Amino acid sequence: MASATSPLLVLLAAMAVAALVVAPVSSAAALPSGFADIASKIPNPWSAFKNLTGCHFGEEQQGLAKLKDYLSHFGYLPESPGFNDMFDADLEEAIKVYQRNFGLNITGAMDAPTVAQMMAPRCGVADVINGTSSMGTGAASQAHGRNLYSYFPGAPRWPRSKRSLRYAIAQTAATPIDRATLSRVFARAFARWAAATTLNFTEAASAEDADITIGFHAGDHGDGEAFDGPLGTLAHAFSPTDGRFHLDAAESWVATGDVSRASSAVAVDLESVAVHEIGHLLGLGHSSEPGAIMFPTITSRTRKVDLASDDVVGIQSLYGGNPNFKGVAPPATSSRDMDSGAGALSRPWSALVAVVAVAAGLAVAL
What we know:
Blueprint: H1 2-22, H2 25-28, H3 35-38, H4 64-73, H5 89-101, H6 112-119, E1 122-123, E2 128-129, E3 132-133, H7 139-143, E4 164-171, H8 179-194, E5 200-203, E6 212-217, E7 233-237, E8 244-248, E9 252-254, E10 267-269, H9 270-282, H10 309-319, H11 335-338, H12 340-345, H13 350-365
Parallel strand pairs: 1-7, 4-5, 4-6, 6-8, 9-10
Antiparallel strand pairs: 2-3, 7-8
Helix pairs in contact: 1-13, 8-9
């Protein structure tokens, strides 16, 4: 019997090895969580960056001008009336700063993890302001135990005499979400920051009575920061004491229910984005800590609403701590991590294990 099944086992083993070679799981191990969704065929203003994978200094390739425009928008390159498609020294340096901010390997080239991170939906607030990075310095800082939160240049904040801030949900005509639901979502989002600080927030009856105004807008809406459609720039907010908070009306916002089970593949959790943008309204810049609320990007169908210790230390350094604050909850598994597609990509050996298991089962059965 053993001699009869040995050729089959050899064949099945060969099939298992072939499956591992054919499946793209080995490269996925080096990519950020959620890359399957970021790099899918879902329309995204930055999807074309996939074509730049592997591009490096000295090359000329179509699409590099758009990459330079992206990096300029988020502060990594100076503004220009017209970028070219040459991978020059300035672009290489800009990519290195970007990689440092996001804790990636500092190669200066468009390697796969860098491309994936750049295609992720994100906040419209720049990471580098007036030539100074508003983020921490990535993995190196973490290794030395530094906090990775940051502030806007000059560390603007609401005055010490103003501990009660009022907000108004002022422009809602561009969103189908009803006012009552919006009120509940934003109340929860503000409450998360109030719990950790000496600040408190109440909804005002009108924009005229408010310190902070919230609105949904499409495309160019008059503040110099035009929105770009689904899964590009999700929202932006201004530093204290400006008080403006704008959301892209083109997004498939989810305000109730489990966003990870949303029917739309481009669904974005409204409360998650709101908590992040409120951090900007209060004076926080972006953080290099992936688990922090103030990390610049979030994938679709993901919920991320709990302040991390990095967020808490940063905001309490500005406004002091709430004596009733019970501390940061242990990190929870995000809805994106629980997604079966992302989970499969994060386990590069899973395909081989599955094939080998099937092979073993067939051998036993025979």
